[in-house]
Amino acid sequence: MSTLPYILLISLIPAFVLGVLIRRSLRVNEVDRAIRLFRLRREVLEAKFFDLAVQRGIPRGLTWVKCDWKPEVRFARDLQSGLITAFCDVDIYFSAVEGGEMEDVEAVSHFREASAVFHYQRGAWGTGGKALFNMSPSEAIHRLEGQYVPLDQPAKVVRN
Asked: How many alpha carbons lie under 13 Å from residue 60 in its C-beta half-sphere?
């Protein structure tokens, strides 16, 4: 019986282990790069979020007035797509559309706590202007536990 298949198999094991270690290292570097880039571009991303959220027209009957951004940001990986996602703590203020069904609702003037959602793809951050209302970033990741896996501990982003 030839020993060649066994030798080949034994020589492939270290190559496989090395490949796994390299992939893991690249993923860690990707997360570090993504978080650094998010911190550098946060103000631009916040403005883009607001512009897109206004265009979405959600919730119906309300107009977006402003966002007060808080320091908490949590990062997670979307288990289905593999994208790195940032959840930013934000208070959102609305006004009722004039003549609309929400015009006489007193609660319209109260801010709404939300998590603004951002995704890192192909080396750049983007957003669709989606907000998860009534959830802090930590709560969002916890509630979406089967969809996201946390990448960090709660982080405070210090602005310059």
From this structure: 1
